[in-house]
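Hey, quick one: can you model this chain's 3D structure?
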Amino acid sequence: MPADEPTILATSGGLIASPRIRWELGPLTEYALDLTGVSGRRPKVCLLATAVGDDSLTIASFYEAAMLRGLEASHLRTFPMPNVPDVREHLLGQDLIWVFGGSVAGLLAMWQLHGVGDAMRDAWQAGVVLTGVSAGSICWHVGGTTDSFGPDLRPVTNGLGLVPFSNGVHYDSEKQRRPLFQQLIADGTLPAGYATDNGVGLLYRGTRFVEALSETDGAGAYHVERGPDGTAVETRIDPRRL
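Sure thing. Here's the predicted structure for all 242 residues.
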């Protein structure tokens, strides 16, 4: 039961603390599950932890959270080789694909190597809902700001471009994020785009931005574009509280 049109929920959140396990699915991820429209069975959810080198603890934590939530869980590894015989077939068989944070530059390189990006586009077009946090948010866009190369943030411009915008994550919690995102849009390195404070997600239907959603009180989303005088113009978007 795929979504009725290509759907992405790109976030700076989606996880919450848990009294029993490492973390649980937060309201943003729960909303992504709602977007699949699945009822009467367990939703099929696949994790990609490529951005943290397919870290075993992250994958194990996902399975714990998925078991607690009652999901039919799987994961796609790229190290040391793909763990499924057909990446495209596996991704097309999901209701929700969830991409974890980490190095977006590393993620995109490994996805290019194994054809994951093309498979993601096919899954998105088929109505499999795509979501993720941080690197798992930037990847769907044209590009954004990243610490993949070191503590001083740099641009990444080779995102999948499923939506024709740039993306700024952790906008309120890492001091370099806002000024660099604005600078890169002002100088044309990145196209106009959307940024999220921690706990906020961006919903896209097809290539259209629909709304911002939040699991955190007071957090915001932002549209940033290049103004006629060559400077960045930022407009706050008040998200709908989940």
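One thing worth noting: The longest strand covers residues 208-214.
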